[in-house]
Amino acid sequence: MTSIETTRTGDDIDEVAGVRFADPYRWLEASTEEVRAWQDAQGEAAAAYTRDWPYFDRLRKLVAHYDTERFGSVPMVAAGRWFRMEPVAGSIRPSALVSEEPYGEGRVLFDPAAENPGKPPFLSWISPSPDGTVLAVGVCADGSERNTIRLVDVSSGALLPDAPTQFLRDNWTGGAKWLPDSSGFFFTGTDDDPVSSAHEVWLHLRHGTPSTAAVDVPWLPGGDYRAVVASADGRHAVAVQGLFTPVPVAVTKLHDPTNLAWREFVTDASLNLAGFLLGDEWIAVTDAGAPRGRVVAIGLNSTTPDDPGSWRTIVPETDVTVRAVRPVGDVLYVHEFVETYSRLRVVDHDGAARGMVPLPGKGAVGELPFAMMNILGPTPTDQLPFAFSTLMSSWGTYRHRPGAPLLETLRKPEVLLEDCVIEDGWATSADGTRVPYHLVRRRDVLLNRPRPALLYGYGGFGAPWVAQYPGAMSAFVAAGGVFVHTNLRGGGEFGRDWWHNGRQQAKQNGYDDLYAIAEDLVATRVTSPNLLALTGGSGGGLMCGVAATQRPNLWRVVVPRVPIFDLIGACRDGYGRWIVDTEFARIDDPDEVRRLATFSPYHLLRDGVDYPAMFIEAGDTDPRCPPWHARKFGARLQAATGGDAPVFIRIWSDSGHGWATDKEIVLTQQTESLAFILKTLGMIPPERPPVAAE
Description:
CATH architecture of the domain at 13-66 and 416-681: 3-Layer(aba) Sandwich
Strand content: 25-35%
Number of strands: 37
Shape: globular
EC number: 3.4.21.26
Enzyme class: hydrolase
GO molecular function: serine-type endopeptidase activity
Strand order of the largest sheet: 30-31-33-32-34-35-36-37
Radius of gyration: 25 Å
Pfam families: Peptidase_S9, Peptidase_S9_N
């Protein structure tokens, strides 16, 4: 138990679809001085506990060494020049640069510190105009991901006037999506409510007097993500709707951007068609009629675009998972998963084989977690630059040209887990499904007795948990622990069925998968419950809360990051309601709401149970998983737990969901959470990163 005083309770009741729930800590949802004082006291106690550990500073150096970008970024080329985001001059905060080569000596175009030296904003995204004369950038001031656009003259580095003033919710819709003639760009804005699910597409034109106007598209019903992007040849624009299963809902000719005449295209929202306009066809990956995925083409003039039987199949379904397709020159690059590891193959526009790309190892080709996010960036032309990582190496950047026998290395991985090994394992879940996982350990850490183990997972929204470098968690491996990368149902590693068998009424399957992996590790004496740690963020933070409340005796320590814990209360705001309704339960059905409560961690807590040690971390400006989830669950847990395991709540100022959090804050966050894990498990970090044996 912590030494913090017991938090007061109230008599509030929450109600969804007529089902009522006690909500004793509702007052912690408010933004009041009392809540702020409570939050500050909790944070001070958490910080004091981790810094009282004598190895905190040593761990901080390890974390700084191992931490790298979460998702592999790739420089963007426009008119022969390359644009990228990268720290300069000893800073750890990225600036926007331009150079003549992908990673050539860069000239700074936008430095956040120049905009506000006292409190530099976060650079969320960059997007160069096709002619290379203007760079659009997104700037977030408070870690919340809400950003506004700046326009930079590439030749002079000066800010241009009359940039759009609308807020963008995040960088998930690609920022500025330029017209091919560089006359303007589409972007997706939002309203003033940080937790709404509103999306509105705007067109900003630069020729003549700059103007910004809303784009009137025949969108499908619902509050899902929306975006408009122009085809590379400049003939059409397509409106895409759906973050997890994008659909090209409408198309228009681009003869006159000020007078767009939209016509409906694919209007069945249940279809999944993540792709690109190529000539007169939409080329996309779909799981319609193919749970593992296939590549299809739909003619823009098709009279039956909603009929999967009328589509032209380019790459048929096989036993591997087709994840994405990218047109480059006269070929298509197809990204696939083979038992969770990436593969890139090349086909022509009719599907005829044109070879395999020789990847640097068994790992992950860089992609963003949700399908829509991967189709809104710039379309490659004559080359495919891409990021690649393994469980032991950070993101490197590579380039492949159609027909080339070899891969070009543009930038080698900056960080390696030296003298380590990767082992693949499979566990059997409660319903008999085989579930994969990967172990990473130092070569000299033999599995001849139980070792400290840290499980890391997600299992939601169809997002594949790719076999990539674990970043700051590598410090756990360096300290002699076993890192366990899990692949749970609800993700997208094995296609549509893997997702659907871990969502909605099957959501519990993903949590059972996690328990099966943990039990397999205990049964094989890799670890034991008193040495078992669990962490995850966002949906993975929910996973942590579910695991700690459903199976408290399975874990020694659990660290949820930016979690959602109160799935009933989440339904009271637009964004939370959309998330719950999309992935967890149909909240207009009382029986579904009752099922939702069976894995809502806030509602699962019971007095007198010996819960594991927990360090609950959230961001004060997080619009996706607002900090009140952590506050309410943490307060209830502190009051309920019957054992002496510590429970801490750490809410960070000027920090959101992690997509726009200042790097210095991120390093401290990661150090505190790992310090809590290592301190609880009795581990000692090395003074410096291990080096490879001679």
